[in-house]
């Protein structure tokens, strides 16, 4: 199963894990992106996320297809992204996969977060302590 | 909504996000355009009309939720199609 | 901080995540090993784990040192291994790391589970439906 | 515990795990050994004494919680040292 979701509240890590764990799988891998407290020496208070929601869901779904082509052994995939205000330390994105063997789980999560950052139309603005207007970020990696 | 206007143009919906939304001062607008237009030309029209020159070099467009990969290509538009103005993304 | 533990009860994924999440970190990566329900066509009921506990803790601690040498950017590391009976679908091992940037978190978790499987003195016996005496396993990878 | 026995041997503690524990029918034993012994020799003595021949080719030893990497090396043992018999591991 593919579990794709844009959410506006805190993401429950255990709940996402419970979605993907499977009797036939020995391995679950998970990546969690959280809000950092600093950027180039400036104190970050929170991030504001917005999305082109329909297209973001479509692109997240394309990432799932791509993962299943590359790692056909994968059982479940979950991609959750939070929108709105995400305070420091809280999750903005959670990607998790399950697989009978560990290599596919580990590699696919790593691939998926790279893809998400390069193609899913979501934007974040960093809100700083000294500058509450904030600044739109750009993924460089 | 379904009728073409006098000059042969059609009305499409433009969506703005992030920095482009702030510059355009709206998240959504109706825009009259030729039914067949080069992507680069459409981008230029949108930049002029919605004050996007500050970010014109890093915008890409999406047509009905699909990225337009190449600004040289012609886009075939239908009444009420959706064009999104996509500044550099930063999800994750 | 390094959080190393051998536990005899269910591992709470959210709790392990909470240990490693950090204000200065944008990335957390986690690997979860769970009990599979089949091995070579035989139905697995549960796994029984035993450890040379003191030495296992020492080796887990050496893995942490090795991770910190290879990825000095890492903030927190958690390695939890469960002992005793682990029913199908439940976690036997959880490895999690946090880092300002994602590459170190992703790569270090992958490296750590390989190391754990090759050097930490822990053993598992698979208990089958048709064969309750079970069979000691051997990590091959 | 601190006295050497008559023949010049000392008593060390042997720990057994997993398959070796089942074959030895115990998880722990006291064993008399020369204070300096080649690792391979010690392994052979343990295999003979504790019925480990079924797995003798895949056992490794640990001395005071450190793997003995090379069976050719001499081990220097002290009274009450701990030698663990380690069959192939399968954690994770």
TrEMBL record, chains B, D:
One of its GO terms (cellular component) is molybdopterin adenylyltransferase complex. GO terms for biological process: Mo-molybdopterin cofactor biosynthetic process. GO terms for molecular function: nucleotide binding. Keywords: Molybdenum cofactor biosynthesis, Nucleotide-binding. Pathway: Cofactor biosynthesis; molybdopterin biosynthesis. PANTHER family: MOLYBDOPTERIN SYNTHASE SULFUR CARRIER SUBUNIT. This is MOCS2A.
């Amino acid at each position: 199963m593919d579990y794709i979701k844009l959410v506006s509240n805190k993401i429950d890590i255990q709940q996402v894990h419970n979605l993907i764990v499977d009797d036939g799988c020995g391995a679950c891998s998970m990546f969690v992106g959280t809000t950092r407290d600093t950027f180039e020496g400036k104190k970050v208070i929170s991030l504001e996320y917005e999305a082109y929601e329909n297209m973001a869901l479509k692109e997240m779904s394309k990432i799932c297809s791509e993962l299943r082509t590359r790692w056909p052994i994968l059982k479940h995939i979950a991609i959750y992204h939070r929108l709105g205000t995400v305070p420091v330390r809280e999750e903005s994105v959670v990607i998790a996969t399950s697989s009978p063997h560990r290599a596919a789980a580990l590699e696919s999560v790593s691939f998926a977060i790279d893809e998400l950052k390069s193609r899913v139309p979501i934007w974040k603005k960093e809100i700083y302590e000294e500058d509450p207007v904030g600044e739109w970020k750009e993924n460089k990696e | 909504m379904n009728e073409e206007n006098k000059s042969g143009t059609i009305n499409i919906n433009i969506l703005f996000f992030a920095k482009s939304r702030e510059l355009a001062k709206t998240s959504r607008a109706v825009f009259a355009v030729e039914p067949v237009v080069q992507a680069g030309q459409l981008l230029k029209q949108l930049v002029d009309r919605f004050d996007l020159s500050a970010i014109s070099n890093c915008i890409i467009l999406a047509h009905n939720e699909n990225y337009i990969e190449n600004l040289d290509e012609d886009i075939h538009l239908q009444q009420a199609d959706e064009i999104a103005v996509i500044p550099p993304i930063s999800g994750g």
